[in-house]
Amino acid sequence: MPWNRDQYPESLKYFMAPVRNKAIEIANALLEDGYEESRAIAIATAQAKEWGEKHHKQIRKKGHEENK
Prior knowledge:
mainly alpha; 2 helices
């Protein structure tokens, strides 16, 4: 199932919009390449986090940061 800015995996709901949108873009590309949904989400999440860090973006919404 391709995702968009309004409908995306639950695991991305606390990500900031730019990082979430990058994850959606990556996940959709992986789905087109034949990856299973769960694998596409995992890869896209990791790559979007890297992208966000590289571009100095806040990754998660305040109050939902990892390693609290």
